UniProtKB/TrEMBL annotation:
Source species: Kribbella hippodromi
Record flagged with keyword Transmembrane: yes
Protein name: Transport permease protein
Taxonomic lineage from the root: Bacteria, Bacillati, Actinomycetota, Actinomycetes, Propionibacteriales
Membrane topology term: Multi-pass membrane protein
Compartments reported by the entry: Cell membrane; Membrane
Alphabetical UniProt keywords: Antibiotic resistance, Cell membrane, Membrane, Transmembrane, Transmembrane helix, Transport
Family note: Belongs to the ABC-2 integral membrane protein family.
Length: 278
């Protein structure tokens, strides 16, 4: 009597399946913790209202007079900042799982190493897509519009989600490297504030000190913001209008996203392996 052996499971298929299951687990927690959704949406809405109505008349956009020009200039910066701050959700979530011993339980299961982290990243990405939808509605309320058609607008949103995906891998590495969720909360954000404000997100780079202008224009957040403004048809002044960041903002944003993923995704998986001995 012959016994049929189980078919060998493709490692990629297993990793995708594990990631999907854990992503669903991550998303199911949101209805149970509505305060997380409330706080995640309040911060970007506050930034929109604060900058649009308090600083809108104080920060002129070269070549585009009027407060509405600043609001259209502003929204891409708010979008990119919010997607960058996705680092915190991944870092705190994974650090919390580590501190509660949940990762040790996963270690005892026949799961792909990458699936555990990818599940968290995918779940957080879906959550950030919802937050971005709320921000789009808020942007329309304050007067922001896109002018290059729905196709290019969707391309801009796709770049923003790709950037969020890249930053979530950074957050995953931080969450696996620190001692607990409290430390992860600070470690995930403290370096992002100077990176965000030393960019074109809120202030046009021609108005920055000359020594900071090249740094700001090659900043990865600036690249994402400039690509979105280009695709939305919003004002996008540059201190060096003939430079590569000004001439090829979409390509530079894609290069930055791919580079971040290529560096931090393998590092996060390796850190998970060393942290769990898996």
């Amino acid at each position: 009597m012959s016994v049929e052996l189980p078919a060998r499971v493709n490692p990629l298929s297993r990793a995708l399946s594990d990631a999907g299951i854990l992503a669903w687990r991550s998303l199911k927690r949101i209805p149970r913790t509505p305060d997380m959704l409330i706080y995640a949406t309040i911060q970007p809405i506050m930034f929109v209202l604060l900058f649009a109505y308090v600083f809108g008349n104080a920060i002129p956009i070269p070549g585009f007079p009027g407060p509405r020009a600043y609001r259209e200039f502003l929204m891409s910066g708010i979008f990119a900042q919010t997607m960058a701050f996705a680092v915190a959700s991944a870092s705190v979530g994974l650090a919390d799982d580590m501190s509660k011993g949940l990762i040790d339980r996963f270690r005892s299961l026949p799961m792909a190493r990458s699936g555990v982290i990818a599940g968290r990243v995918i779940g957080d990405l879906v959550f950030n897509a919802f937050v971005m939808l709320i921000m789009v509605i808020c942007g329309f309320i304050v007067g922001w519009r896109w002018h290059n058609g729905i196709g290019q607008a969707l391309a801009a949103f796709a770049i923003l989600l790709l950037f969020a995906f890249a930053m979530l891998w950074v957050g995953a590495l931080i969450g696996l490297s620190v001692g607990g969720p409290e430390v992860a909360s600070s470690a995930g954000l403290i370096w992002l504030f100077p990176l965000t404000f030393l960019s074109n997100a809120f202030v046009p780079t021609p108005q920055l000190p000359k020594a900071l202008q090249p740094v700001a224009e090659w900043n990865p957040i600036s690249s994402i913001v400039a690509a979105c403004r280009h695709l939305f048809g919003n004002p996008s002044p540059f201190a060096s209008p003939d430079g590569f960041p000004a001439q090829h903002p979409v390509w530079l944003s894609l290069i930055w996203c791919v580079a971040i993923i290529a560096v931090f995704a393998p590092l996060a998986v390796r850190k998970y392996r060393s942290a769990t001995g898996h």
